[in-house]
């Protein structure tokens, strides 16, 4: 089944208000900037989607990507590990004003909660955060003399991810470190929307090179020359 979409605007057109949205990337590596900016364009034109819960490793940098979403007022809650990154002015401003919620999750726990959702595992135990504020209200249990915290899987309505090469049925590869959260999020969302630098026909990718099988991808769009977050931040771009 051909899953190609003609534009990034069309790819994100069905994301509604109040949706939970996973966004791939580790900082700028693997961040689907064009899909994010298409979502911002739609919000500016229509006022929707709003009240989003965004799940990412951080809360954005500068005034592009996720930071631009926050600045625009689209995000009601961030679920992340590093809200204070190199230039988190957009998040800081909203958080200190009480205009955005924060669910702080240790990075390994965040990755495992997402992976667990994709694997159909509703909960797991980890020693991370035991005895801290992050564990308050969560069940704990002792195993072999060590205390563990029970964490739930983390699902989303949509995942926006970025790959290097993809075929028309959604099989994907990633470029180096851009692999990070993207494959996990592709498996943990009800609908996964992917942008790839190169879109090819079926059977064009060696099956042994496929990282994300097409069964986990619902829509795929080609962005031949994707922007890099760090470059945009460094040059002072404001989206």
UniProtKB/TrEMBL annotation:
<dbReference type="InterPro" id="IPR037171">
    <property type="entry name" value="NagB/RpiA_transferase-like"/>
</dbReference>
<dbReference type="InterPro" id="IPR004165">
    <property type="entry name" value="CoA_trans_fam_I"/>
</dbReference>
<protein>
    <submittedName>
        <fullName>3-oxoadipate CoA-transferase, alpha subunit</fullName>
    </submittedName>
</protein>
<dbReference type="GO" id="GO:0008410">
    <property type="term" value="F:CoA-transferase activity"/>
</dbReference>
<dbReference type="InterPro" id="IPR012792">
    <property type="entry name" value="3-oxoacid_CoA-transf_A"/>
</dbReference>
<keyword id="KW-0808">Transferase</keyword>
<dbReference type="Pfam" id="PF01144">
    <property type="entry name" value="CoA_trans"/>
</dbReference>
């Amino acid at each position: 089944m051909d899953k190609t979409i003609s534009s990034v605007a069309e790819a994100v057109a069905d994301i509604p208000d109040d949706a939970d949205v996973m966004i791939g990337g580790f900082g700028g590596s693997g961040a689907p900037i064009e899909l994010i900016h298409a979502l911002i364009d739609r919000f500016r034109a229509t006022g929707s989607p709003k009240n989003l819960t965004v799940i990412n490793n951080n809360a954005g940098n500068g005034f592009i990507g996720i930071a631009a979403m926050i600045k625009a007022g689209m995000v009601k809650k961030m679920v992340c590990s590093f809200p204070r990154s190199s230039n988190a002015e957009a998040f800081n401003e909203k958080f200190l004003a009480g205009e955005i919620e924060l669910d702080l999750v240790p990075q390994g726990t965040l990755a495992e909660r997402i992976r667990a959702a994709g694997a159909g595992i509703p909960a797991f135990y980890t020693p991370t955060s035991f005895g801290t504020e992050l564990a308050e209200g969560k069940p704990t249990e002792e195993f072999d003399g060590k205390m563990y915290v029970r964490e739930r899987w983390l699902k989303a309505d949509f995942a926006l991810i970025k790959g290097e090469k993809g075929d028309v049925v959604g099989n994907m590869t990633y470029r180096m470190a851009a692999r990070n959260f993207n494959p996990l999020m592709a498996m943990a969302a009800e609908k996964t929307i992917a942008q790839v630098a190169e879109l090819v026909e079926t059977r064009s990718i060696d099956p042994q090179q496929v990282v994300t099988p097409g069964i986990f991808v619902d829509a795929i769009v080609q962005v031949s020359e994707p922007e890099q977050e760090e470059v945009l931040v460094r040059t002072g771009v404001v989206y």
